[in-house]
Structure formats: C-alpha cells, structure tokens
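Render this sequence as a predicted structure.
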Amino acid sequence: MTTETQVLETTTHMPAPLDVMGVPVVPFETYGQALECIEEKVESQQKSFCIAMNPIKIYNAWRQPELRNLLRQADMGICDGVGVSVASRILYGRSIPRITGCDLFFRLLGLASRKGWGVYLLGASSQSNTTARLRLQEMYPGLKIVGSQDGYFEDSQEVVEDINASGARLLFVAMGSPRQEQWIWRHREEINASLCMGVGGSFDIASGNIRRAPRFFRMTGTEFLFRFLVEPRKRLSHQGILLRFLFQVVRAKLSGGRACIEWT
C-alpha cells in the first residue's frame, strides 16, 4: 500500500500505482517514462526501492504476510509479468504495459553510463558476477562499475559498508526472489545508493550463462512459454500458479473488484 509520504514524493513522471490483487504496480507507458522517473529520483538523491512484480511474487505474497507487506512498501513496482498485465485488464479494463526487470536493468546501465553514475553488482556466483562485470563494461563504454560481490557471503554488514564506500548510485541485487528483495528491505536504510533493485538472473544472462528467450517471445510477453518448452518439468508448477492467480483475479472481479487474499 502506498503511504501518504510516498504519494507526496511522487514525481510528475510517475503515474499513480494500481492495486493489482493487493500489490501496487506503477502503470508506466514506456521504458522511457520509467527511466525518466528513476533519473529524476537519482539526481535529486531520493532513495528508491524498485521491485519487478509478477504473478508468482504476488501469489507467494498472498500466503506470506511479511512478503506481502514488503511488496506493498516498494517505492516502485513495475509490471514484470504478462499475468500482471492481464490482471489489470480484468480488474480495471486497462492493461499495464510490461516493463520487465531484466530489460529495465540493461536500460538503466545504459543510462548510468551516460550520466556517470556508479553501479554496484551484488549476487550470483563469483564466476557469473565477474564475467557479467567484464561483458557489461564492453557493452556500455564508460560504465562505472564501482564495486561487486557475489551472492555467497556471510557478513551483510561488510557488504553494506563496501557498497557505501564505493559511492554507487545504483545497486543491483541478483539473489533470486524473494531473497533479493528481503535483503534489500532489511538493509535499505543503511545503504546510500539512490536506487536498489532486485534483478534475478540478469547477471547470468549478462555473463552468457543463461540464454534469454528469443526476441519473438519477449516482444509478445510469452517468455513463460519459452521457458516451459525448454524446462517443462521445472516450469510446470509455475504454470499452475499462473492459472490459480488468474482464477483468483476473475473471482475478485466478480466479487466487485476486491482483492481476494484469503487463499487456500
């Protein structure tokens, strides 16, 4: 739930969030609009916690009150999954354009390279983190990756101190969800970076360890179908969650648009 303080701090570029089954999602029309909003926040030294919202995160939040509270307190929830866009269409008669976490991550790196912002990469394996760092600096000339740390550490306080000492303006955390969001949430008050964002497997994609879905699937919002075709057993449970999510969205609509959060 967006607080009064958050509403007062909303920039002219950030649309009012829509409540999608108990979770606020900002209906950005384009990546450019999202980048403009983030740029304004970073330049004005506002702290922002960005979460890529998808049906699985929202589904898990229904069952985990702590996670639900975390998602509601995000400064910026983006429409990462096509299921969230469909849910908005059912509930409000308007789809939210998809702003995927992975694509926003790469576009933010391009913006950081142009603005001279320092970037910190936290998470993934040591090999993936190191390779991602090298490849990203090749992809974005002038990109200042001022620090990095793999996801296998024991002392979070040391990591926070390293992030702050680096002077990073953007912190990207690749630990898988919801662990990455939970880590950011626990330490966000101590972290000086303007933007903190969980990016899932983006470092593995940047390093070449994981193959992205072909452009056709990304453009049509059907990456879930590609992943199911590649890893049917692993992804079968995800498809079941998506169906249950959409069922509850329809149920909420039929009950007057109220978000149903008493799940079985």
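Summary. Residues 1-11, 259-264 have pLDDT under 50 and may be disordered. The chain is about 50% helix and 15% strand.
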